[in-house]
Amino acid sequence: MDSQKVSSQDIILTGDRTTGPLHLGHFVGSLKNRVVLQDVCKQFLLLADAQALTDNMGNYVKVRDNVLQVALDYLAAGIDPAKSTIFIQSLVPELSELSSYYLNLVTVARLERNPTIKDEIKLRGFERDIPAGFLTYPAAQAADITAFKATVVPVGADQIPMIEQTNEIVRRFNNSVNAEILVECRALVPENGARLPGIDGKAKMSKSLGNALALSASPDEIRQAVKMMFTDPNHLRVADPGQVEGNVVFTYLDAFDADQAAVEELKAHYRRGGLGDMVIKRRLEDILQALLAPIRERREQYAKDPAQVMAILKAGTQKARETAGQTLSDVKAAMGINYF
């Protein structure tokens, strides 16, 4: 992600569903960039517990506990609460009220056509048994974004349709009140534009799929994850030429190895033969151990004082309510329903 595309005038809104601790897929996709962006612009980080409940009703303890877990990951990765506002989605009721108004600006057919929602429905096997809250999430996300008048939203390429639908809602609302009340935003996509695949080679890294590596992973967990990584099934002997495309180890080296010239040399060697899988796996393990060790250590320190972490979230949530409350007031005034 190119932070040079963001100015001090920009407002950033980003967040994660609180369905589990963050993993390397989150890190390469956006988390490390949030650390950089907090020094460049005004940033709001949303702990999306309300969104998590759209397909986790009944798993209340899981969602609640993961609010703390995701907050620990943010802080451990370098998010500074003095620079970024970290808040809990469900404790900002202004978001729910905005969402209820936005639902009147979008049709069920349009929601069902949203490519991101279609993919997620298929992934979860909902078919027609779709929780209404899940289907209408684009309106809720529009509320999350517009409440803070965010101008930039860091997302993966798969989330671009959500940003497009947010801007549709913004335009429809502004047209309905004949005034520029809400602000359109733009997606800020990581330079590689793609998700980090799971360690098993599947397109998506996910805790639920059992193919994720948590930011809090122990040295042994990192070692075992790298050993299990998919390479080239036809690369049976060291002397055999190997395929780099679709080779998860090389995908991870592209994402995390700072010496890209060396990575390109390894790719060339692997393609012509004479380079074993264990050599590239050892290189990757060393890189991931060095990357995750300080994050894990900071996380352990924060975890010793959960009350301090919750105090950070409480202060951030109060600040978020003030901002969202002003936007809601502007919206209701434009609609003429600020009765008193």
From TrEMBL:
Protein name: Tryptophan--tRNA ligase
Entry GO MF terms: ATP binding; tryptophan-tRNA ligase activity
Origin: domain of life: Bacteria
An example Gene Ontology CC term for this record: cytosol
Originating species: Paludibacterium purpuratum
Matches recorded under InterPro entries: aa-tRNA-synth_Ic, Rossmann-like_a/b/a_fold, Trp-tRNA-ligase, Trp-tRNA_synthetase
Keyword terms, alphabetized: Aminoacyl-tRNA synthetase, ATP-binding, Ligase, Nucleotide-binding, Protein biosynthesis
Keyword Manganese: no
Recorded catalytic activity of this chain's protein: tRNA(Trp) + L-tryptophan + ATP = L-tryptophyl-tRNA(Trp) + AMP + diphosphate + H(+)
CDD domains cross-referenced by the UniProt entry: TrpRS_core
GO biological process terms on file: tryptophanyl-tRNA aminoacylation
EC nos: 6.1.1.2
Protein family (similarity comment): Belongs to the class-I aminoacyl-tRNA synthetase family.
